[in-house]
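testing teh design pipeline on a random one, pls ignore if ur not involved
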């Protein structure tokens, strides 16, 4: 039974950057490939949207193994943005995703502003893409490897140029590895971002004490999963107050209550990543849980709880 048959009175739809989502739960970039493997476990049509693995102009092999290690309540990955490249994606991966009614959001990255812009321009000419999620967590090779996403003025310049390169909705995916997330969020909003999504992974490290070596060949990796949820949630809440464009929240969402925390903090939608490795059908259960929560409390729409955070001393519903 679908969510709508079970909860006919509850409207779960949201609109972000002009993209209409039947529910606010998306699959996060890098944790669902290009949808094919995931489709064996869950009906892609039941997702609010699907965000592809990060795509670059040329194919990338990623980092050498080991590139994943389990950590307390999470995982550390150093996949290194392995992907098939834009030509192969458009020719052989996108056609599969296009057969569903679910909006496809393409996660994009480059090593220079020129690469980002050329990629976004190419994708703009292709049918079946609802929007672009611009991952700004990449090092800018032209400027000595400094991350675009950790410097407000570099982030601003990048998104300003990407804005000129595409008419598609732009969602900027923010790195949490910064001191002031509101500053970065405002800088990309001013540059023309239609929405922001956060957080990407937190930089972390694991050492094998037997060998005295880092477990990951890349030495450091990105931490995701429940371990980061309170950190990501705090950053989402701060971002909601800093910008007026829609905010998409993610980081450690495993069930409906986790997703609801982000919505109550002000996120208009959420993404589910690491949970897919534990239960690939997690997004479906999360959609059900949100609908049940809304119905029990007499809300007619998920939009009624967006940002309904009460402060200590205020009456909760
Ligand atoms: C194995 C793996 C690969 C990822 N690849 C990408 C990627 O290509 N682009 C991107 O923007 N984020 C990528 N991410 C980050 C996730 O989309 C998400 O922001 C992060 O994992 C936090 O959410 P979670 O705790 O629900 O996993 C990746 C995460 C994991 C675990």
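output:
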């Amino acid at each position: 039974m679908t969510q709508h048959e079970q909860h006919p009175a509850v409207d779960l739809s949201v609109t972000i950057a002009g993209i209409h989502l039947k529910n606010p739960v998306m699959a996060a970039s890098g944790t669902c490939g290009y949808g094919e493997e995931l489709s064996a476990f869950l009906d892609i049509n039941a997702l609010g949207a699907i965000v592809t693995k990060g795509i670059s102009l040329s194919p990338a092999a990623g980092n050498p193994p080991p590139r994943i290690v389990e950590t307390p309540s999470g995982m550390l990955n150093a996949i290194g943005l392995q992907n098939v490249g834009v030509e192969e994606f458009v020719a052989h991966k996108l056609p599969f995703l296009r057969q569903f009614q679910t909006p496809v959001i393409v996660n994009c990255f480059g090593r220079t502003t020129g690469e980002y812009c050329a990629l976004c321009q190419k994708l703009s000419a292709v049918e079946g893409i609802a929007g672009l999620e611009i991952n700004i967590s990449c090092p800018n090779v032209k400027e000595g490897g400094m991350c675009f996403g950790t410097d407000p003025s570099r982030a601003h310049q990048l998104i300003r140029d990407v804005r000129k390169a595409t008419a598609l909705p732009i969602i900027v995916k923010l790195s949490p590895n910064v001191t002031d997330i509101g500053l970065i969020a405002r800088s990309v909003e001013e540059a023309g971002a239609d929405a922001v999504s956060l957080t990407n992974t937190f930089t972390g490290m694991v050492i094998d004490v037997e060998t005295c070596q880092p477990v990951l060949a890349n030495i450091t990796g990105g931490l995701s999963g429940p371990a980061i949820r309170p950190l990501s949630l705090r950053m989402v809440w701060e971002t909601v107050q800093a910008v007026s464009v829609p905010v998409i929240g993610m980081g450690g969402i495993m069930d409906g209550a986790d997703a609801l925390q982000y919505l109550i903090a002000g996120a208009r939608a959420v993404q589910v990543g690491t949970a897919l490795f534990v239960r690939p059908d997690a997004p479906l259960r999360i959609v059900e849980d949100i609908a049940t929560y809304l119905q029990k409390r007499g809300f007619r729409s998920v939009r009624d709880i967006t940002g309904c955070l009460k402060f200590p001393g205020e009456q909760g519903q």
